Amino acid sequence: MPELVFFSGTMDCGKSTLALQIGHNRSARGLQGVIFTRDDRAGEGKLSSRLGLVTEAVEATEGMDMYGYLIGQLSKGGKVDYVIVDEAQFLAPEQIDQLARVVDDLGLDVFAFGITTDFRTRLFPGSQRLIELADRIEALQVEALCWCGARATHNARTVGGEMVVEGAQVVVGDVNRPAEETGYEVLCRRHHLRRMTAASARAGALSPDVLPVTSA
Ligand SMILES: [Zn+2]
Fold first, then answer.
1. Is 87 a catalytic residue?
2. Catalytic residue (one of 44, 62, 87, 132)
3. Domains of the chain and CATH, by start
């Protein structure tokens, strides 16, 4: 039975690496897939992982009919055996509905990869719809770690290393940019609630007024 599978996790949990691995394993068996992504760090029409692997992908633009796109490929004689969607949190709920139709009407497996919650711990609309519709949800096993060493379960947005809790849900940023710019950091829930990033923890450790934080 074809399935809609949602691989969910925080940032830095190896989603894109696993997406590339699934694609590689299937193409090694002679299967052909369509890879969609949205706002990948490597640029439009690319799927990249932090480990440095990159492959060509179809940019899932705003308003794109995912089901219609695949029908178009198939009617042109293209071979499509499965579908991979990276950065699925950025898709609109309607686009997730279209992916469910790809599974049910076209009989294709759809593997969607996404971050579950935003920097305010709220579900992304695309991820919410995936949780509602997926046949199966897989929490990724490669665990990202908070600076304290605990399992990182939450995404923080930072400006100059300080955590912020206001702003638009999607701001393109990167952990490799200069510290004054918007970035992202994964934290455990305790440090997300305390708004304590690696930078503010270091600053706190230098201040004699602040008790050291233990990672119990
Ligand atoms: Zn922590």
1. yes
2. 87
3. 1-142 (3.40.50.300), 143-205 (3.30.60)
